[in-house]
Automatic annotation (TrEMBL):
Residues 18-115 form the DC-UbP/UBTD2 N-terminal domain. Pfam families: UBD. Residues 1-10 have a biased composition (Polar residues). It comes from the Eukaryota. InterPro entries: DC-UbP/UBTD2_N (IPR032752), DC-UbP/UBTD2_N_sf (IPR038169), UBTD1/2 (IPR039869). This is DC-UbP/UBTD2 N-terminal domain-containing protein. Residues 18-27 have a biased composition (Basic residues). Residues 1-33 are annotated as: Disordered.
Length: 116
């Protein structure tokens, strides 16, 4: 336990300041075009608040997923998001609500195909 002015050290174990990173390369079950991927992302973000949690946290996670790593880190830190998985696939808010993000909203699959 520390005071409000203390900083978290590397071995603290709480995980609230975990440095985020890009997800590992992944493959979708079927090859996708860029427009199919964007449609899947849009559908997820449209329905995400219905999974529970707070809309402002979902908005912060969306902004972080669409930003570069340093900006994404600043967004999750300022929103009070507790990152369990460094690739942002599992996060919590300060009230303990869980937020699970599919990899397709965080990065592109290795089997993305060109549209003709």
């Amino acid at each position: 336990m520390g005071c409000a002015g203390s900083s978290q050290t590397k071995g603290d174990g709480e995980g609230t300041l975990k440095k985020i990173r890009k997800p590992k390369p992944w493959k979708h079950p079927q090859p996708l075009t860029k427009s199919q991927l964007l449609q899947m992302r849009e559908e997820f973000w449209d329905t995400a608040p219905h999974y529970g949690g707070r809309k402002e946290i979902w908005d912060a996670l969306r902004a972080a997923s669409e930003a570069d790593l340093s900006l994404a880190q600043a967004i999750v830190d300022s929103a009070g998001v507790i990152v369990q998985s460094a690739d942002l696939t599992i996060c919590y808010d300060e009230r303990g609500a869980k937020y699970e993000l599919p990899k397709y909203v965080l990065s592109e699959p290795t089997n993305l195909i060109q549209e003709s």
